[in-house]
Fold:
Amino acid sequence: MLNLTQRLILGCTILAGLTVWLGVAAHRSLAGTGHGWLAYALPIAAGAVAIATMAAVLMPIRGLARDTRRIAQGNLEHRADVTGRDSFGSIAAELNRLAVRLRDLRESEAGRRQMEFQLSDAVLQSMFEPIIVTDAKGQLLKLNRAATELLGVSAGDRLALNKAQGGEKILRAIKDAVSLQKAVALEDEAALLPMRFGNNERSFRLRTTPMRDSEGRLLGTVTTLEDVTQVQNTDRFKTQFISVASRKLRDPLLQLRRGLYALGKGFAGELTALQAELVAAAGEESQKLDDLMSDLIEVAEIDTGKREMKIENLKPIVILREAVDRYADQACEKRVHIELSAFADLSFIRADRRAVRSIFDNLLTNALRFTSPGGEILVAAQEHKNSVQFTVRDSGRGIEAERLATIFDRFNASSETGTGMGLALVRRLIELQGGQIAVESRLGHGTTFKFTLPVAVVTEVRHPVEVG
Structure:
């Protein structure tokens, strides 16, 4: 429209100039022939025609350009006041119709967005679990009712998480979610967040997810606090029941094993070959049952907090040698070679001796169970920055890929043999001592377990210097 206006102004100016020039030329010719009044009237008429033409053409165009500019700037209530049935009137009518449609579209879009915002806010506020929306630095952006009640009077403060009970864990989870660029949803006991909700102490599980816009730019995080108090109480009751039942069943089992041992040794008389075979099989099954009872009791002690860790400085090479010596005879009987690989000067670790023994017993038992005769088992240790990494690798049949994700769950036996509690116990013991465990395996290529335990802090000791 603006370009058209400029072109019309230029065209009208040229047309007016030509009209005036023709009037002046005609004036000179008529003045020479003696028509004086006509010589003056014709230039005046030419000038009037030029002015009228410019007014009739340029004024509506300038008005339409002005109206178009105001509408383009966002004033959709403005209307062009050019009327008539000519082209200018048609252009003004279409411009007014376009402004009405743009206004209706903007109002409908704004209404839709307002409705979507109200709906999302209503969904957020109606959720039973506390929802905390923060920016990437942990400052509060939005809370639902449950989160507001949880944080109390400090809910209106953007830095409320720095002061709230359990806020440190929430801020750490936000930092991890932002740095890792993925959701953080820990499932172990360390992820539980005790907080006071009203007059009751509740336990929440932390789940934090990065929040991004449609273009992928990081806006902040959304943290959900899942109330697991009832689940935790049920699990605690189940653990206590298992612990009591295991202890009550262990005494009759001990008597049963003693009786089977006595029969196998012939204390009650000589047995036939079939009887001896049955007694030996029953003895092996009772041993598996006793192993299961031991694992259940130890896991229950950990879950209920009765298992006290006696942390001390332990030398890795000594731990590995003791573990290899304990299973040397079994490995020899099965014709499996156990290789030890570790430097003697590795740093001391801070760990519980009984727990470390139980860890290696479970890992080596599994390795021997699934390694065929003629195979190999590697027991190794390597020092890292603040920890020592232990490795138990076997050349057995390996583990299916779909089972690796749940290999450390309870009652998840690697086969029909075993208690199904060993690896769950191993993971709990390692995590209690500040370490981590991982597994790598492929079918036909063996299995490797790697776990870390923290290095003992070296304290500087100053010896007095004798003078003189």
In short: The mean pLDDT is 77. The chain has eleven helices and twelve strands. The first strand starts at residue 131 and ends at 134. Residues 402 and 442 are 11 Å apart (CA to CA).
